[in-house]
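Write out this protein's structure.
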Amino acid sequence: MQNIGFLFVVISELRKIYKDDEEAYKKAVERHLEFFNIHPYMLGVVVGLVLNLEEKAALEKKDFGKEISGLKTALSGPLSALGDYLFWGLLRPFSAIIAFILFFFSLIVTAHYLFSACVLIFVFLILFNIPHFYFIFRGLSVAYTKGQDVVLVIKKWRDFDLEPQIKKIGFLLLLSLFFVYCIYKNYSVASILGFYIMFLCLELIKKIKKFSSFKMLLCVFGVNFVLGYFKVGL
């Protein structure tokens, strides 16, 4: 899946490492054409570790092919799960929420849709791309420097539980987005209280009946459809 892309990343370095050993270079190319798949933003860690081991193999004139392939396979699963959690599960939605808060705030202040849309896009791209690009290159640097000891660093990342704090921050961000949107739409206090009561009722149903998020969304759309049909607005 990503083997050719991975080889493209490391092939120039492999040529430098094995410049005096054509046979070892060919073996290195072949082993990096094996099946490989990982979260793209965690790739730097594996590239750094692989280059560290390839240099070690060239210096010691040993064949580390099995160790390199084994580590790539062993790390791809945990790193992919960690990448999904950090970037798809946390960074992307948090960046989007903050961008939308500033979007509606900009609309309130300027009433200019094009400018506000540019603010939304710019803020989202900055908040999302700077951390993940930093992580790619920082992961490569740490893995290349530490070699196989990077596994201990990854374990620390996995053991560092941020979930309680993240839930609190996420709730505050969503609440901020809700209030900024209400101010933009000029909702009355009664309307805001109505939304809040509906939210509490759905949360209560979710806890009692163990509804999924999808069913929760269906409930929200259903309530709004009925209210709209009868021309009742919150």
